[in-house]
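Kindly go through the following sequence and its backbone structure tokens. Advise at your convenience whether the structure tokens fit the sequence:

___
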Amino acid sequence: LALIQKAASSPAEVTRLARGQERELRNWLYASRSGEGTLAAALEAAAAEVEQTHQVPVDVVAVGDLALDESSTALVAAAREAMVNAARHSGAPSIDVYAEVEPGLASVFVRDRGKGFNPSDVPADRHGISGSIEGRMARHGGSATVRSSPGEGTEVRLELPHG
């Protein structure tokens, strides 16, 4: 609260601090129920880190959950890279992350309503999408699909078989 008082003249900073405190309170309240070491908890942590670093709100909704293993940790890393790309390049006011765990399949969608881009125009020497997202998912038996067009925002769909 003291930090929020000090930042009272900056609405954006007050909002950022309040969101961080809300996230910490939710983690404290619900950590014993959801458990640490789960896909949902790891996505929340990645979103909090991206939000803190890039000062763009990142909202996570998770339906179902999954214990972290090597493959699901790679799924979180790919989702984090998609969040970072959206925060850095989209110009969107916020980023949405939706995760769903079904029998046999975990899916994560990272969406922004930013400026979008043409994926075929990404230079070959840029490895954020091809290496850190698509390649990482492929190495762990999953897939990544990037859907974007100028003016329409971007959606990154990550799918990972499990179980």
